[in-house]
Amino acid sequence: MRSKTISTKARENQIMVNQQSRQQSIVCDTHSVSGVVSQRACVYCGARVVLNPITDAAHIVHGPIGCASYTWDIRGSLSSDSERYRMSFSTDLREKDIIFGGEKKLAMAIDEIVENENPKVIFIYATCVVGVIGDDVKAVAKHAEQKYGIRVIPVNSSGFSGSKKDGYKAACHAILELMGPEKAKEKIPHSLNFLGDFNLAGEAWIVKNYLETIGLTLNTVITGDASCASLKKAKESVLNVVQCAGSMTFLAKHMEQRYDIPFEHIRFLGIKDTIRSLRKIVFTIGNQEHIERFENMIKDKEREYTPKIEAYKHRLVGKKVAIYVGGGFKAISLIEQFNELGIETVLVGTQTGSQDEYNQFKQLTSEGTVILDDANPTELEYFMKQTKADILVGGVKERPLAYKMGVAFLDHNHERKHPLCGFEGAYNFAKEVDLTVNSPVWSIVKQGGIYHE
Amino acid sequence: MLDQTKGSYKKRTGLKINPAKTCQPIGAMYAALGIHKCLPHSHGSQGCCSYHRMHLTRHYRDPIVASTSSFTEGACVFGGKSNLKKGLENVFHIYNPDVVAVNTTCLSETIGDDVGEIIKATDVPEGKTVIYANTPSYVGSHVTGFSNMCKAMVTHLAEKKEGKKAKGVNILPGYVEPSDMMEIKRMATLLKIPFTMFPDTSGVVATPNTGNYEMYPEGGTPIKEIKKSGNALGTIALGEFSSKDAAYELEKKCDVPATILKEPIGIKATDEFIMKMLELNGGIIPKELEFERGQLVDVMVDVHNHYHGKKVALFGDPDILIAMTEFVIDLGMVPTLVLSGTPGKAFVKAIQDLFDAAKLDDSIVLGEEDLFSFHQIIKENPVDLIIGNSYGKYIAREEQIPLVRMGWPILDRVGHSYFPVVGYKGGLRIIEKITTALLDKYDATCPEEDFELVM
Fold this sequence. Notes:
The complex is a heterodimer of chains A (about 450) and B (about 450).
Chain A: E1 15-17, H1 43-51, E2 58-62, H2 66-69, E3 89-90, H3 95-100, H4 103-117, E4 121-126, H5 128-133, H6 137-148, E5 151-155, H7 164-179, E6 191-197, H8 203-214, E7 217-223, H9 228-233, E8 239-242, H10 245-259, E9 263-265, H11 271-285, H12 288-316, E10 320-325, H13 328-340, E11 344-350, H14 355-364, E12 370-373, H15 377-387, E13 391-394, H16 399-404, E14 408-411, H17 422-437, H18 441-447
Parallel strand pairs in A: 2-3, 2-4, 4-5, 6-7, 6-8, 8-9, 10-11, 10-13, 11-12, 13-14
Antiparallel strand pairs in A: 1-12
Helix pairs in contact in A: 1-7, 4-6, 7-10, 11-12, 12-17, 13-14
Chain B: E1 16-17, H1 24-32, E2 38-43, H2 46-60, E3 67-68, H3 73-78, H4 81-95, E4 99-104, H5 106-110, H6 115-120, E5 129-133, H7 142-157, E6 169-172, H8 178-190, E7 195-197, H9 223-228, E8 234-238, H10 240-254, E9 258-261, H11 267-281, H12 287-307, E10 311-316, H13 318-330, E11 334-340, H14 345-357, E12 364-366, H15 371-380, E13 385-388, H16 393-399, E14 403-405, H17 423-445
Parallel strand pairs in B: 2-3, 2-4, 4-5, 6-7, 6-8, 8-9, 10-11, 10-13, 11-12, 13-14
């Protein structure tokens, strides 16, 4: 069934078709093959997306202008306070800086940002070229810390030094650096941190609202709507819950070692996951009173949202979806959410999923579902056609591909405009799927030209 | 987001805040897409390629495909030779393009990869072509990258067939929208002048929806056309910053005389383009173009009272700004500030000359600056209108100034791929946009007694 022209030999092990009766595995977590049109990004990209939502920090991109330009305000993370994180700061390295080193310019940039913005924390992202010319970013940062009495934290994110996942790690290191080595003097009772939510379209606020209704304290979200002060306070929590596992499990493990904060994996995408996750939290750090409030809240929410979602379901049952997203956790949630709406997942792939996550894909999907790691547009096109998908879930680059094929599209990435988590999100999700998949435009595309009977 | 900005402009030396430019490789990638069946290849980390494709996708809303050398730590130590060799093999094997256009990045330039040598040592399948441009991200801007790739098309493809009679005109459209390239072709066709235009992205990044995804759409200048450019009567390079180098390269390589013109935006620049075409090839001004020009003049007369004397601040890329500044002066507007992120003394001089000719003594032109400075200066000297790309929307919102979206990139509106700003037709569209922006604001904010049906 595989067409020879859609892929190289080197890619064969990264594609599989689900056969429930057989033991199967996929090769993932590898570097992309050179010359292939990969949808993947780089170390810097990983670090930048994780740290970007920290609202009051000044994020200086140390390198030529591109890396700063392409990441200027592209993530829909919302802030309840400072808007500084939406500004683009860069050293805009020029040829003479490449020859003579960029340290002087970086030091000047820090001076100028302190003069203009007076931030408490500055992150300095090292890009590809900085890694090669050997700027001592650490030394410049240390000097600036002493000069101004603020935190200046280097982020080791040269693009070539690994994958996007290594960028997540670099970001986690920077966050740990900000939190400091010492343990919390006191813990906040019934409190938790929410790791791996970026407050896209205000999603973290929805979860915060649930936890407050139950009577628990959401101490810090990492990194959605986080401030430098809130990150420093994170160690006072008694529990960490991790949503985006790919980016934040690393931080959770380190926080467990350093600050004795245990962690649990949770997901707030879809109603089942939301209830499961809240239950896990309440039973871990709550008391009887919290449990009762949780049960009541769930009843209320289910009463409110189930009929609303059911109203959409009959318009969606029987459709087929192709999922191609960045991380594995999101794909798993999506498969389950589509299942809840009666939509079958016929293709699922990620840029950076892990072996464990791919095994879960196999369990959650049925016979014949195509599973892909680090796919390229040609493969996506081929398998979308073959599986007759009605809708694609993906990011920026996949949208026009789907549209050209006359396939509906759901943005489950940085550009989403409506929250897709919790009960409200599950409703928005059904609404958005309906909005695209049942648009009259697809029938016009299918006519394939000037209408004649 | 910009509520903290204060109006005391001071030149910074280390820090760029809110850039008005981006890096070379993306411009090179856009130019390369204007060759038929060409796959751009980015020789660097895969993040670069991913960002460029993402940004181009957001602007054109069409699938943008390019491959990458996917640099690793090893490639940085030992050089990117094996990545590029293997990459090119894979590209031809899997995607089967006619041409691969390699652009370098800051990384591959800094480690010193000799891309020309690597390509020479690569087995390129028969009938296939590889061209390349050096596009270090730390020199110039995205416009420089576009220019370098256009020049590379000449260097690697143009041929002069001795003894063959020179025929037709080459047109280098410059860093403009697919809609503008379509319009330039339409004007040349009306002039009945045989021409070769490259690059031509109009059938590549603004394709019709057929229900099928075509990795290589029908558009783009065919290689054999670009080869033929060596035997033309002359080359018209539109936009000094994006087209001059390629035109001079063709003059040097094949003795095809080069003429550098402004982008044909506005009435004067369009007149110049048409007259130069006729001068090179001979022919007469077609009735259709005379008619379109007349319509443009008519609309300029109809609504001149709405924009005459209004202050406007413009930012973006040099070639568009030079032509647009001339046009808004012709409309009677006062360009108080013109700013580009792209470095270049020629830009500052060109704009200053326009200011001087119009006796605009208080107007400011800045090259290699950013949008934070743009905002600071507007705070000091308020304007009625901003003309620039989507990134102007933050300032427009903060200062309650209408924004006419023009230039690159436009990430939040549609239309730029389909409706040109060049030519007389483009002039009409610019006037429509400017007038609508000014009048929409007036209607939304004027006192009740001034609110009128007829304007």
